Amino acid sequence: MNPLQSDLPKIFLKPAEAYVGDQPVIVTTTLGSCVSVIFFHQRLHLGGICHALLPVANGQGNRFKYVDGSFSWMLEQFHFRGVKPGQIQVKLFGGADLLEYDKGHSRAVTIGQQNIAKALELLETHGLNLKASNLGGAIGRKIFFYAHCGKVLVKNIGKVCWLNHNLKETPRK
Question: What range does the domain containing 103 cover?
Answer without folding.
Answer: 10-157
